[in-house]
Amino acid sequence: MSGLPATSLLLAVALLAAAPAFATTPDALDDPTVDPAPCLAAAAKLDDDDRAIALCGRLIASRKTERDDRIKALIARAGALARKQQVDRAIGDYDDALRLEPKLPDGLNARGELWLGKGDRPKALADFAAALKLQPDHAAARANHKALAMELERLGAQKAVDGKPSFDCRRARRAVEKAICGDRELANLDREINAIYIRVLQDNATAKPAELRALTRAHEQFIAARNASFGRPGYDLRAAMKARRRQLTGIDGY
Question: Domain Lysozyme inhibitor LprI-like N-terminal: where (predicted)?
Answer without folding.
Answer: 169-230
